[in-house]
Amino acid sequence: MLSETFGITPGNAGLDNISWNILGQTYVPKQFTDRSFAWHATLPPGAFVPPHIHPTQDEYLYLLEGRLDVLLNGAEAVAATGDVVRLPMGLPHGIFNRSSGVAKVLFWVSPSRRLFDLFKGLHNLTDPDAVVALSAQHEVNFLPPAS
Predict the structure, then answer these.
(1) CB 38 within 8 A of CB 105
(2) Which CATH class is domain 15-139?
(3) How many C-beta atoms lie closer than 10 Å to residue 124's C-beta?
(4) What are the residues whose beta carbons fall under 8 Å from the beta carbon of 5, sequence distance 6 or more?
(5) Under 8 Å between Cβ of 105 and 26
(6) Under 8 Å between Cβ of 60 and 144
(7) pLDDT tier at 147 (50, 70, 90 boundaries)?
(8) Contact, 109 vs 118, CB < 8 A?
(9) Closest by CA position to 139, among listed 25, 49, 74, 119
(10) pLDDT digits 0-9 by tens, 108-143
(11) Which distant-in-sequence residues (6+ apart) come within 8 Å of 17 by Cβ?
């Protein structure tokens, strides 16, 4: 069991100095226990996470900088600096940086389940089919493209 510890994760570093490249986005883990997992993400213009479902986790985003277009259970919305996006488990969502600027976001999920291990496996992976297959093995289910 991973329990919380006292301490500070510096703003310019991740846990154990980890930084993952996930399809051109930078994910830096900031906190990780069995109950929750938080990471800082930098999404360059054009970056996106296609519609998917977390069947076993609630997910949250706090926009530190920039804006994102978000697909929330079929409805489009815009989130901007200072907004919190709430994504309950089992509901489809997608995240898109369609702006001309970088978006910086604090993400967190509860419970952690297998997401930390998924990100470790996705680091520098470039084959979309492999990303989808590995994600499904770690309780993240990508939806088929809209027709």
Answers:
(1) no
(2) mainly beta
(3) 8
(4) none
(5) no
(6) no
(7) low
(8) no
(9) 119
(10) 999 999 999 999 999 999 998 999 999 999 999 999
(11) none
